[in-house]
Amino acid sequence: MKNLVILISGRGSNMEAIVRACANEAWPARIAAVIANRPDAAGLAFAASHGIATGVVDHRQYPDRASFDTALAQAIDNHAPDLVVLAGFMRVLTEGFVQRYSGRMLNIHPSLLPSFPGLKTHEKAIEAGCRVHGATVHFVTPTLDHGPIVMQSAVPVRTGDDAAALAARVLATEHVIYPRAVRWFVEGRLALDGERVTLTPPEAQWLFVDEASVEENAKTGAQAVKAGASTHAGEGA
Questions:
Q1: How far is it between the farthest Cα atoms of the chain?
Q2: In the 8-state DSSP scheme, what is residue 4?
Q3: Global model pTM greater than 0.85
Q4: What is the pLDDT of residues 46-69, one digit of tens each?
């Protein structure tokens, strides 16, 4: 039985997807805690309603990034995590914090890494004339939005798309690939080989959403965006 600690800053729609998948699919795991860096993070109410311990480490109460990370690590370690899951956590973490959870911290980023690290990924993809765009689940390393890739999803970029429409389409796929990647970790199927991730037994580590299904998938994402969930790991997804 693996202990998972999920970090959020806002609604935490990816956190919700993971919580539901863990329960519905009977993972050999428990969501030990959901911790936010903002006391008004809406996802805390969802977690509490599902019987999950919650906590707040308000970054505004600390004089610098290092002291905040120290307090956050203490709050996380109180739950003896096997895996730390970043699900819309709006803080850049220090190298020491990342190294503390090396090989056992996952993030999801709304682009096909290594393309478009950082913020405003959907705007960047449209401006660059991309024909496909997507999301990436990866192990966290000290370099922002970088690390061994576990799984990716890809969706079409349509003529006339704005950032919101593209964001909704991508977010719907995030809710599929992130729980799947976390489950693989829980089941002991992931192994790190330098910058590469191997999955045993092998299966597709990608999700392509074709034109026939993209509209239906986008509906869920659109609802989440309208409810205030951002699609960037640093913006509260």
A1: 51
A2: E
A3: yes
A4: 999 999 999 999 999 999 999 999
Query: Active site residue: 79, 109, 122, 138, which one?
Result: 109
From 63, 85, 101, the end of a domain falls on 101
Identify whether 109 is a catalytic site residue: yes
Do 122 and 213 belong together in one domain? yes
Q: Which residue has the tokens 């002291």?
A: 67
In the structure encoding, which two tokens stand for residue 31, read together? 């969501």
User: How far, in Å, are 52, 80, 190 from residue 49 at the CA level?
Assistant: 7, 22, 31
In a shared domain, residues 114 and 15: no
14 a known binding residue? Answer: yes
pLDDT tens-digit map of 118-169: 999 999 999 999 999 999 999 999 999 999 999 999 999 999 999 999 999 9
- 188 known member of a binding site: no
Q: Is 13 annotated as a binding residue?
A: yes
Say if residues 14 and 174 touch (Cβ distance below 8 Å): yes
Is 65 part of any known ligand binding site?
A: yes
**237, two tokens:** 């997804």
